Amino acid sequence: IPFSRDPDFVNRGDILDRIHVRCSEPAGRVALVGLGGVGKSQLAIECAYRVAAEQTDKWIFWIHAGTQARVEEGFRTIADAVKLPGRNQPKADIPQLVYSWLSNERNSRWVIVLDSADDSDVFYSTTGPTPKSKPLATYLPQSRNGAILVTTRNKNLARRLTGNDANILDVGPMVEADALSLLKKKLGLLDIDRATELVRVLEYVPLAISQAAGYIRARAPRSSPEKYLDEFRAGERKRIKLLGHDGGDLRRDGSASNAILTTWQISFEHICSKRPSATDLLSLMSFFDRQGISESLLKDSDEDMFEDDVAMLRDYCLVSTNEAGDVFEMHGLVQLSTRKWLEARGLQEKFKAQFVKRMAMSFPTGDYSNWLICRRLFVHVEKAMGCRPADGEMEEVWARLLYNGGWYAWSQGQYEIAERMVDKARRTREKRLGREDEASLQSVLLYASVMKARGRWKEAESLEVQVMETFKRVLGEDHPSTLTSMGNLALTYMNQGRWKEAESLEVQVMETSSRVLGKEHPWTLTSMNNLALTFWNQGRWKEAELLNVQVMETRKRVSGEEHPETLTSMNNLALTFENQGRWKEAELLNVQVMETRKRVSGEEHPETLTSMNNLALTFENQGRWKEAESLEVQVMETRKRVLGEEHPDTLNSMANLAFTWEYQGRHSDA
């Protein structure tokens, strides 16, 4: 539970009892539905703590459900909490791993809280890394040992997630008695008439009441419920303006209570008059994703000032922290209201630029070595897509951020968002730097890679030809960037089965790279490996073997026998031997690769399983069915558990096992 228990919690009728009943049922699901700020999450927090106290054998998991990235991050948190095997592998299907664990009724009982699940697309969008990708809702099990509690403003989504209207609990504003009880807990003894009038003008909304109490406490003894009411009424012109705001304005959330927005605006102005630096911090935070805002993204050199600013913002309930105190979050409507407040003062561009600059400094390239950092910060890059700065120089910084974000999204198989990010980066760089600038061309190359990942070969080819010709003309035929663009185009040809065109380019790249970079440079060896694959696909085994041996021996000497690229080379050579019927030589290499990958990467790493699969195929080709079967069963079961039952590699394993059984006469099993 990522939030501490609220000592000022007010029990609201029988809502908690009704939640408890629903969550105690096998495969129970229940949704709390209502406007933002009415206390849905507070009810869920209190419910979670009560379950934790009363049922100590039950797991409680909390998932922030505002975006797909946050839900996937929540699944990863669950995977880490229960220490699921294979979760740290680069190609691990985390939602499927978690789904399998939750569905196993031997793994204790559990409750999942899906907090702020307001967007149906987060759970039911069919877009994803492949045309067969599953919506996230399918990873929410209906097993008897679990229950799901949802907080949402979207009743239709609640209905879809819980099954029917009987599982929906409507949460509205507090009844007057509960609202007064909350205000009393926050402020102590009160004049009942003034307090009643105060909660009434605040529309009995818990968030508005809590924030008003924070405002009053901060100004005490010079403030009180009476003075707060006077100030509220003095701002009537602003309140009328907010209430009369066009509902079609996309900058304004249609489900927001206007009383909340008014209360926030009063708080902003008061904080600005007393501590401008705290207002600046709030302004900066308003551009991030509302959750997971790391203090490292916000903090400047003055530690004391930062801590005092945070203390003031927390006093006003405008931000909250995790239990460790180093990660912040804001309500989305607080952010919206803050940005509106900034816009009215002509300060929006200033803080938007600060946000973009800080994110660009913090978010690295999408290289594998940076994935942990990228995963933690990626939701904020998603927000940055809508924050194009007006300043020209900052536009270039924004483009760099989106380029790196798109690179990471591409590496994770999130091709739709990668396409949008890289396209924005590409267009911005071309406008600012020109079409022939190297940064612009690198953006085009990354965009082409995304196109290839989505199977749009012709678009990728057109872009890669364009980049290659430009690099040749601007940088010269021997420049590394030119060679990279040629290699990319060759792979595109290869994926289309255009072997001769691929071969022509690969030979050129290999020879130039050998001359310019040296025969043992990694890029040279990669080009040789690609050329060998082209030979292999044309059945030119001897030529493929010659290159494979050369690449393997060089990589052994330069990178070491256990380097992933070395093992890939050994694997390729083994495949070449197999296609020539040289089973013993293939077996020897496959065993060596498999054992090394087990030791270096772990027995459940996807590459280790591929090695085991290759060895099983070698056994098959020698008629050693029992040995092949033993490996294939192991690979299949592990892939089911690690990758999921519908992953292409899992299905491939099942097909291989069926083939083995067929040859053993086990036709029904096959």
Automatic annotation (TrEMBL):
Which residues are in the NB-ARC domain?
A: 28-186
Its recorded name reads P-loop containing nucleoside triphosphate hydrolase protein
Which keywords does UniProt give here? Hydrolase
Pfam families listed in its UniProt record: NB-ARC, TPR_10, TPR_12
Q: What InterPro entries does UniProt report for this protein, alphabetically? A: NB-ARC, NLR-like, P-loop_NTPase, TPR-like_helical_dom_sf
Q: Which domain of life is it from?
A: Eukaryota
Molecular-function annotations in GO: ADP binding; hydrolase activity
